[in-house]
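Two entries, shown back to back:
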Amino acid sequence: MDIRQDPNSTNQLTPLRIIRGLACLVVFISTAFMFLVYFVPVCVGILRLLNVHYSRKTVSYLFGLWLGLWPFFFEKINRTKVIFSGETAPEGERVLLIANHRTEVDWMYPWDLALRKGCLGHIKYVLKSSLMKLPIFGWGFRILEFIPVERKWEFDEPIMHQMLSSFMDRRDPLWLIVFPEGTDFTEQKCKKSRKFATENGLPVLSNVLLPKTKGFHACLETLRLSLDAVYDLTIAYKHRCPTFLDNVFGVEPSEVHIHVRRIPIREIPPSEKDVAAWLMDTFQLKDQLLSDFIANGHFPHEGTEEELSTLKCFINFGAVIVITGTFTYLTFFSSIWFKVYVALVCTYVAFATYFSIRPFTALDFAKRLSRHKKVA
């Protein structure tokens, strides 16, 4: 992850941007740590044993509260313009969301749409299993029930079906995000993708990679009856694709353009072959949209979403800081038992992350105990 200066950019790296970016990183990491340590035992350890639905609702609310810091940072502090186009998505839907993968930070920008729809805490990802091992954030990914994949279907299929089947209750909020390309776009990967397409009679694409269809079909097959729609997001940047550090220090992007298509679930074919063809057609449309964006500097039908409320962003930021400040005081300046508590929670969460232990319910525990007795 490097910081690359672009002569067309109006945001040059300065000492002030470096200090501000580092300060924001400290805030993000410290707030994430305190939320995990103090809320996980109640929301996941106790509440989930009693009621999965209320546990997920609570986790969703707290996750949305914390995650709201990022759009606030992007749009209000870094002054990144996020411009939506295409269709207007309704609020409160359960959706499967697909997007192109231009760079290492594409996964962050659906948050700006989700916040506007009141669904920020509903987000889950299908992501590389190696990310689940990250300290602090990997802990959170597991607690939030993100779906880890190895990119080998024989390993991924049973895990995906097992986890997806637990998301079928329509009462549980869900925005499940999938990047069908499976990796971020580079010119080298594009050449390989184009060569493969030519050799196999598939569409030759210039701005996206050929999508992988099995994971997308697995999501549809399992969740179809509980979903309202598929949201197809096409993401583009001015003046170039940003890195994570570009985001942190506010160097790039100056503009993020997100084109939204809403496809009702009933309009997507059921069979795996037809779903694969539908996804391929969708990525051909993405490729054309990106070509038009390169030529024109914008997507068609802009202005479908309003700007974020600065007041609401500051209220959310204040709430997160007050909660984190309270927990920080209890940890470092209060009874020694709080230090013992934090140490025990960190030990448990690190252990659960290393050994891939997922949150479970009282029913799950009873089933495991019954199987153990039968084996004994």
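entry 2 starts here
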Amino acid sequence: MFSPFRLLRPFPSRTSISALAIRAYSSSTTTMAPTGKRIVFTGGSGKAGRHVIPYLLSKGHTVLNLDLVDFPDPTAGVFTLKTDLTDSGQVFNALTTHYNFGGYEHGYPEKAPDVVIHFAAIARNMLVPDNECFRQNVLATYNIIEAASKLGVRKILTASSETTYGVCFSEGKTPYHSFPLDEATYDRDPMDSYALSKLCGERTARTFARRYGHDIYALIIGNVIEPHEYATDFPTHVNQPETRRRNAWSYIDARDLGQICDLGIQKSGLGFQVFNATNSTSTTKEPIEEFLKKWEPDTPITRPMEEFEAPLSNRKIREVLGFKEEHDWRKYYQP
């Protein structure tokens, strides 16, 4: 999540950025493997990013984090550039910034990254007034995609949301149109400003992909689960399924989201794409079709579903990008 408010802490004085400091920052960062990509990641200090970035580092990529708060793990070697993404000038500058102080030792300015991954956002409704949530999210996404496109970045991943399917933040209990929730055919018709901002982001991505002929993949990210939440939250998620209706009994493990991002980096030439970014497995104890017929009897099931397939289906991302779930919730919680 990002905020429009500038940080008030002073930046280091000119004399404090010494050769010693440069060497210290340089030695603390991860070295990119020959096949790794240079990635600018927005919102990397948030709930998802703090797990996705370490996954990307483990695959040999180099990552610069754009956020308004430092990366939460100071030992990870992730440099954070404090950037207001609603300011297009800051965004253009940030995309050509060194990844750490060691960059000054290279002897040349930083070029644009190989990949931009845009996760930064006001993370949900009711953190700020609705119009401010919409303004920040839409403007930040536009600024990032425009700057990356004009600087020649050929691969952009941008975060959309499960909320765009129209139930998560609906007023009252509203029905799903059909199951499974499919990227290509489902009429995504949300009521709320957050989801609307994400749909605008998808349209922005499609527009720039058409104009520049590059790859922009929009990830419809499910409810993000961190490793510790299996113990704290899944007893309720699994045993009180009514609490998961607004999330379509689906989720994405933050580490599996890292895999999805890496697969998106590897797979090129698809142009504009939208992918449900969820785990393969539903949060139900019963087989999914049996469960849905009992809990949502008036909602049609449009195709045969796998035994425990998540209703927010990731079939496309499995078939197109080769995603394989590594963190099924049953590994961590047994009802």
